[in-house]
Amino acid sequence: MNDTRPMIEVRGARKFFGPLEVLKGIDFSVARGQIVAVIGPSGSGKSTLLRSINHLETLDGGEVWLDGVQVNQKLDRRSFERHINGVRQQMGMVFQHFNLFPHLSVAENITIAPIKLKGMAKAEARALALKMLDKVGLADKIDAFPARLSGGQKQRVAIARALAMQPKVMLFDEATSALDPELVDEVNLVMKQLASEHMTMVIVTHEMRFAAEVADRVIFMADGAVVEEGSPAELFRNPKQERTRSFLKKFL
Ligand code: ADP
Ligand code: MG
């Protein structure tokens, strides 16, 4: 049955940067519609793991699967390029630093991929952009340029842009870390709304309260390994590992 197959599956993921082993055999899977929060100290490999899922980093060992298709499969160069472009269209990724094109309007930022990669007609792409902007509460900014937006608005545009590709999963890497504190909630609210619509999401975050509210499962990483995982209630209220306890103490 398609519905019981994990949406994302990572098996034995290993990654080195030179002599440094950054991922030491990570296993984890995300069910369809599930929200997984990944927490852990800076440098523990969270971003590398997320980037490995859509092959922005190439693993040295292990496998990544998206909805039953192996992402990091062996193919000749040209076939792999075609394959990975197809895979990436199915994964929306949102970074700490928005990465909007500054010389393009909000509409152009959102429509460029649907037009170029999916061959969508301009008018149809603009209608889609408007729909996605409406979702993130920014329909009135469709013709604005990024420089005129607040950080929270930029990040919401980045989310709308990812959603316009109608991805199967959304990956968030500290989407609110670069924001002024008063702008964090508006972005978190959009993520919560996506969660309520059963979008499959992996959320790397330093905000324990948000993780506890939004996630079905929390994964604690340290030193390139999964130390502990569980429901938010288990992991936050009753951590089993000393390493998890001492990490969480810093957030009390
Ligand atoms: P986190 O997101 O949990 O803070 P990262 O995945 O960014 O951790 O980094 C894990 C480790 O890998 C860190 O020690 C970091 O310095 C190192 N690292 C990350 N990217 C690179 C890179 N491109 N080259 C060399 N080292 C890297
Ligand atoms: Mg990181």
TrEMBL record:
PANTHER family, alphabetized: AMINO ACID IMPORT ATP-BINDING PROTEIN (PTHR43166), GLUTAMATE_ASPARTATE IMPORT ATP-BINDING PROTEIN GLTL (PTHR43166:SF9)
Compartment(s) where it occurs, according to its Swiss-Prot or TrEMBL record: Cell membrane
Organism name: Shinella yambaruensis
CDD domains: ABC_HisP_GlnQ
Membrane topology: Peripheral membrane protein
Entry annotated with the keyword tRNA processing: no
Pfam family, one: ABC_tran
Domain of life (superkingdom): Bacteria
Molecular functions (GO terms): ATP binding
Sequence ranges assigned to domain ABC transporter in this UniProt record: 8-248
Keywords per UniProt: Amino-acid transport, ATP-binding, Cell membrane, Membrane, Nucleotide-binding, Transport
TM region(s), chain numbering: none
Name of the molecule in the record: Polar amino acid ABC transporter ATP-binding protein
Family matches, as SMART domains: AAA
Family: Belongs to the ABC transporter superfamily.
